[in-house]
Amino acid sequence: MPELSPRRRLLVLLICCMSLLIVSLDNTVLNVALPSLQRDLGASTSGLQWTIDAYTLVLASLLMLAGSTADRLGRKRIFMAGLVVFSVGSLLCSLAPNLDLLIAARMGQAVGGSMLNPVAMSIITNTFTDPRERARAIGVWGAVVGISMAAGPLVGGLLVESVGWRSIFWLNLPVGLAALLLTLRYVPESRAPKARRPDPLGQLLVIVLFGSLTYAIIEAPNAGFASVAPYAALALAALLGLLAYEPRRPEPLIDLRFFRSAPFSGATVIAISAFAALGGFLFLSTLYLQNVRGLDALHAGLWMLPMAAPTFLCAPLSGRLIGTRGPRLPLVVAGLAMTTSGVLFAAFDAETSNTTLFLGYVLFGIGFGFVNAPITNTAVSGMPRAQAGVAAAVASTSRQLGQTLGVAVVGAVLAAGVGSSSYRETFVSAATPGWWILTACGAAVLALGTLTTGPWARRTAERTAERLESAEVREAAGVSA
Q1: 329-342 pLDDT, tens per residue?
Q2: Using N-to-C axis directions, what is the helix angle for 117-127 and 131-162, rounded to 10°?
Q3: Cα-based angle 319, 323, 328 (whole degrees, multiple of 5)
Q4: Domain 6-199+249-476 sits in which CATH superfamily?
Q5: How far is CA 205 from the centre of its chain?
Q6: Would the pTM of this model clear 0.90, i.e. be above it?
Q7: Angle, in degrees to the nearest 10, between helices 354-380 and 305-325
Q8: pLDDT tens for residues 221-278?
C-alpha cells in the first residue's frame, strides 16, 4: 500500500472507526432494549441470551475467515461488502415479527460485521507503520468503544421510550451508507504479499466448537445438563480436531505458531476474560435496573453513564501509555479496577445502594477503558505485516468469543438462580455467583497482564516473529516449512 499523507491517514482511521462504532453501538443499544424486547416478543431469559449471542457467536466464528480472506482478495473490497451486508441485516432486524426471525436477522448482521472490525484493524495496521503512531491510532480505536458505551445506553433508551426497540437498528443505516461512500472514495486497496489459501475444514471445526459450547451453556438451565452433554462432547471433539488438524496445514485458518508468543497468547486470553466480563456486566446491569429497580430504558441508560464515561476517557490514555511505557501498566490498572468492581457486587451487593452501584460502575468503566488498546496492540505487534489481518482477526475473535461466553455463562447462572420466581424477589442473590465469575475474569486480566508483558514474554515474541518470517521466506522459495 502506498505511503499516505498524515491527513489521509487520519481520514482512513475515521472511516475504520465508523465501522467499529456501528458494530459496538449495536450491542450497547440492544442491551438497554432487552426488557422492552422481552415484553414485546415474550422472550425468556435464554431467548434474550440468544438475541445477543446469535450475533457474537457468528461474529466470532467468521472473523478469522474474514481476516484471511481480506488479506487475500483485498481489504477494501471485503470491508465494503461487510458494510452492505451489515446494513441490510440491520434493516431485517428492525422488521422481524418474532424472536426467531430476529435471531436469524442478527446472525445475518453478524456475517457483515465479521468483515468489518478485523479488516478495519488490518487497514489501520498497514496505514500506520510507525509503532508510536500505531499505538495512538489504536487508542483512538479503543475510544470509539467508549463512545459507543456512552452514547448507546442514552440513545437506545431515548429511542426505545419514544419510538420502540425496532428503531435502534435504524441507526446503522445512515452510518453504514456514509462509511461505504467514504471507503469507496478515500481508502486505498491493500492485500497481503502472499495470499492464504482457504481452510474449509478448519472453519467448520471453529463453527462447531463455538456453536456447540454456547448452546450447551445457554440451554443447560432449561433442558438439564444430561440433555446438553452431547453438545459439550461435540465441542470438545471439535477442539481436539482443530489442535490435531491445523498444525498439519501449510496455511491454516488458525496459525497455532502465533501462540508460541507469550504476549500474543496472553492478549488472547485477556480479551476473552475482559469481554466476558463486559458481556456479563451489561446483561446483569440492564435486567437489574429495569426489571428490579423498575427504571425505564432512558433512566437505565443514564445509570450506565458512570461506566461508559470512564471507558471513553481512559481508552486514549491507555493508547498513549502503550506508546511510551508499553502495555503492562494499562493491563495492571485494568485488572485491578475490574476485579475490585466485581468484588463490590459479589461480596457487598453493590447494586442495592446508589453509592456503591455508582462506584462499581465507575471502576468497571476504568478497567474496560484501559484493557482494549493493549489487547489489540499486543496481538499485532511483532507479527509480520503480511499476517496482520489474521493476527487482528484472532484478537477480534477472542473479544467476541469472550462476550458470547460472558452472556451465556452469567445468563445461565442467573436463570438457574431465579428459576420460576420473579426478578424482583431473587435477582440479587441469584446474580451473586455471576458477579464472582466476573471478578475472576478481572483477576485473570491482572495476572496475565503482569506475566505476559515482561522481558521473558518479549523474547518469546521475538523468537516467534523470527520463525514466522523464516517460514515465509522458505515458503516463498518453494521449500516446505
Answers
A1: 999 999 999 999 99
A2: 150
A3: 80
A4: MFS general substrate transporter like domains (1.20.1250.20)
A5: 20
A6: no
A7: 30
A8: 877 788 889 999 999 999 999 999 999 888 788 888 889 888 889 999 999 999 999 9
